[in-house]
# Entry
Amino acid sequence: MKINKIYLDMDGVLVDLVESAVKVLSITEQDVFANPNILDEMGVWDMLGSNIDWWENLLPYEWKDDLINACENIATTYILTAPSKTATGSVTGKLLWIREHCPKMFKESRFIITNQKHLLANSSSLLIDDTSRKVEKFIINGGSAILFPQMYNTKEGNRPFNTARELIGYLQNECSG
# Structure
């Protein structure tokens, strides 16, 4: 099977959403790792979701460029991100973030914003996402997927890599042409 499209999730893969959220809440990253649903329980999306500036200024992970480059050496790569269901500002903020931090992908319109990631699944597509249910749904619909390693998904049985750097090394060494 030849992969010809790679879809990279934005939040939790390219962007440190957790650090940005805890900065404005009275919790720690460890609170989030101990209870991955805490942001939903605290209503963070209602508080921050419509704030375009918050989404636009999310911090990129230090490995963002290495991950994108490793993927682009394998196949055409897209940012595939879901909008917050209750946050109208998330779409505009994410587009502004992509324009700032991934200008080539923005210029080439290599980004997709949808809550229906599984609709892009096929035998030649690969999704890299930090949410196990999205990974599983993508696979069920005929695509390949890798669960991106994060502290909040360490208990997931289908996580093949322990760190972002380990995944990047795999993509660079094992998958590239």
Remarks:
- The beta strands are 5-8, 76-81, 111-113, 125-129, 144-147.
- Residues 89-101 form the longest helix (13 residues).
